[in-house]
Predict the structure.
Amino acid sequence: MRPRLVSRTLAAAAAVTASALTLAGCWASDDSPFGAASFSGTVAPVVDGASASGWSVSVWQAGTEDDPAERIAATASDSDGSFSIDLRSIERATSLVYVVASAPGASASTDTATFAAIVSADAETVVLNERTTVATGYALAQFTGPAGVTGPDPGLPIAALMAANLVDAETGAYGAVLTSSPNGTETTALASFTSLANMLSACVLDTDACTTLIDAAGARADERPVDTFRAFSAIARDPSAAASTLYDLSLVVAGDRPGLTEEPSAWTLALRFDGDGQTLDGPGAFAVDPDGNVWVNNNYEYNSDPQQPTCASDLVLKFSPDGQMVGKYPGGGLSGSGFGIAFDPSGQLWLSNFGFAGEGCTEQPPHNSLSLFTIDGEPLSPATTGFTAGDLAWPQGMDVTASGDVWTANCQTGTVTVYPQGDPEQAKTLDPGLEQAFGVVDTGSHVVVSGIANSSVAVFNYDGTLVGGAPLAGDAFVLPMGVAADADGNVWVANSGSTTLPCPDRPISSGPTGSVALISADGQTVTGPFTGGGVTRPWGIATDGDGNVWVANFADQRVSAFCGTAPETCPGTLSTGDAISPDDTGYGFDGLVRNTGLIVDPSGNLWVANNWEEVPLQTNPGGHQIVAFIGLAAPVEVPAFTQ
């Protein structure tokens, strides 16, 4: 496991009392850093009856991890809300830039509205309103604090990209991705977004509503947000802190389209992505590269008719950080890759071929290989068979150590296959006494593998010997599946509680509610199980940059979150193992189906695989989207590859 680096940094700087944010890249013109002698915009509240005159406007350059944000220009909006910034004397901006606009009357004792908007580098104008503020607050949630916006590349630019899916900053209108399939009216995301914008509309008309909004946003935070822009960032980071209060506020002003009609348990914003709409079928798990691109296993060959049998996919898919499919790569013996996907230190991508196929598939795929690709999507493994050395048998989870050793769990036999330094010719097969070996994670000092059927977890030294001489077992483990490590080497285990489905000839059995367990960095001390957080049937598990724990549930359309081993990063007074997400519902979203893998990217987006339909027909059960919960988790920076 590569080290997880916290990308959220709040540099000490003069407080920005209220901000409307404009994110830009390196502007093209040699005459001006912004491509023009002046930059224009409009403060344009969506709510009727609001004044746009006299808003304070200033331009700030975002800070890095080491340097604070810096103000580089200032003005005020005219009677119609318009403003123009003279940029001729400003040095070329080489980092992201944001524009600040606060409503008249802002003071230390009075809360007033703050707008925010993200603009592309080639834009010469921006509209600032409630929608752009919500989009900016959520997208930049993990980089925004009292001192403004700070963060490293590529995390901060990636975060800005996601905002454009929610809103068009040049017009202030809803974004095309938010309003179209597989989002739009197909999920509650658009209604949630509208309700969030309505909260700010109420604030624009009434300063008491601003106080309610800011207080609710900081209900479990260490400090109260300094303005309404940062209030939305706080809500994105802790969306269930005061969900009921925020819902009541969302009803004060009617928006231009329907908002939520029922109180949510949490104010998450999640978007679905389906690529080209005719390739993604049964996504299983993820790997993220240093540029923030998301690579996905594709279980099945796409078939839009669930009653027509589908066979194994021969593709691995690549999505850009903003959710657009930018590559689909065949070959290398790919055959229904399911849950195993990992980069090695040099940037080569390994995948395990479980051989997923729907009932009725006329040509059963093989279930005994690994595939290997370059970062450019070129296959390096044998085209027909992949790599088969090491007695691979229905392989599932995998991980790669810092030295390049590839570890793979064999679900059929319970064994573990190791390719030292990625060399199949040196393959070793280890038999630790697991049944249905499934999840694999490198902790930086050990490799940990779960065994579903006999509820045990093996902790290996890198030489293949078992720490303590035998797998761990006991009441803390109940049909464990995914495993994840934090930066300190602690391992979290997803106890499915009931699932034995993913290996050959194994039905879904009944059992207790799912849970998570913790194995300390010594590889022997076990605590838990921990329940709550809406956890039902855990499958995939991941840690974020703060070491907190995220769980994908294979039932009930929700993800769950738990406090990790650094409670100071958790909301309120939570302790290790306490649930962060609501106990009854988790972070629910009706755009989820049955979920398997999940991962946190460098911008703090949590990606979840819609693996199986809620009511799957076994001929073709696969789901057809990946889902991004925007700004929800502490970023995980991916170090550069060695070559």
Q: What stands out?
A: DSSP finds seven helices and 37 strands in the chain. Residues 1-20, 22-33 have pLDDT under 50 and may be disordered. Residues 559 and 587 are 5 Å apart (CA to CA). The longest strand covers residues 622-629.
